[in-house]
Amino acid sequence: MRVCMVAPSVKIPEPLAQSVHQFEFAKNLVEMGIEVHLICRRDENRPSQETGITYHRVFSKDVPLSRLFFTRNAKSKVKTLLREHEFDIVHDRGYLFGGSGIAIARKAGIPTVLQIDDDWIRTEALVSRIAATRLYRGMALWWCQRTLRRANHAFAVSESLRRVAIDEWGADANKIDVIPNGVDLDLFSPGVEPFGIRDRLNAGGDSIVCFVGALGPWHGVDKLLQAFPIALAKQANMRLLLVGGAKEYEISHLIAQTERLGITDRVSFLGRVEHKEIPRILVESDVAVAPYPHADYGFSPLKIFEYMACGLPVITSDIPSTREIIRHAENGLLVKAGDPNELAHAILSVLWDSDLVARLKAGALESAQEYSWRSSTERLVELYRKALRG
Question: Which pLDDT tens digit goes with each residue over 224-235?
Fold first, then answer.
């Protein structure tokens, strides 16, 4: 089987979840004997092939309206590739006003699979005032509906996101499956060599509360910062470690918040790190947090799978997407979204209750086995076959 994977909004390699997701799919497909051509944003200085994936670069500079450029560039790349090679499947990672792979493959008579990673319309409105206007939302909904109609099959990364596609975008329930994100169980495990983060932070015997991911508003880091001084008031020997990047103004906002809360000396911003280093940081932590806000954007949280695979007690917000993964008090703790007091109480309950920690760790490790990238890729291949049969 030969697959054209169209993901121009994704940069590879990058430590971001979307980059890890797309690379793991492509890598595992290759390991299963499938030829993969991946259209993505990519560093010109990197080699053109890794692990057997054939890369095709599109416009990757971070400039205003860059999406217009890489979308247009991707359309040209897809047309060229479909002329030069015989593909069995075109796999298109969707995003608002993208869909180059779906549109061109449909004209060429090649079966297509559409990948839906988040609620495109709500996510866009979160970061753009224009996207929140009625006119823009109307155009976005029309585009979502048209793209879903054109695709032979689609998959969402969570059941809650699948329901959005069906109930709000009008997707055919028989043409959309669920394939969750996963974790590399060879990379993430409790037995990896520690990074040495405790020595670098001079943490001594302090408990480390860890967050990994982008520090944008959709991950609820501001609520985590609000919760931390509440917990510190009852246990002073704690540190909060934030691992991940953000835009400069977002980082400045969070640093200013730590100053207002008087916790600057207890919070460390580590910035972005290589994905392979994340498990080495996690195994030195005592508890890992994913404090999503009230809004549910249909996540399949990569960080939660990685936390669990390292055997960490996990605390996350009680929203539909996380309830698909976390069973409260079995493999993690669910807390009320946006409630700093409840989050602080959960952190302390983990640090103070050794029996709870043992139960959560065992449950997390067991659950992680269900979410390997290999198993997700096997489900993806079955969806390809369904599209081919259709």
Answer: 999 999 999 999
Give the C-alpha separation, 204 to 37, whole Å: 48
3-state secondary structure 74-117: HHHHHHHHHHHCCCCEEEEECCCCCCHHHHHHHHHCCCEEEEEC
pLDDT digits (tens, 9 = 90+) for 258-267: 999 999 999 9
Alpha-helical (H) ranges within 262-301 are 278-282
* Angle made by CA atoms 20, 357, 315, in degrees to the nearest 5: 45
Residue 228 near residue 240, CB atoms below 8 Å: yes
Q: What pairs with residue 315 in β-bridges? A: 289, 333
CA angle 299, 303, 305 (to 5 degrees): 90
Give the pairing type, strands 314-317 and 287-290: parallel
Give the three-state DSSP class for 237.
Answer: coil
| 248-261 helix and 221-232 helix, angle to the nearest 10 degrees | 20
pLDDT, residue 43, reads: 67
Domains, the chain, with CATH or none: 2-182+372-389 (3.40.50.2000), 197-371 (3.40.50.2000)
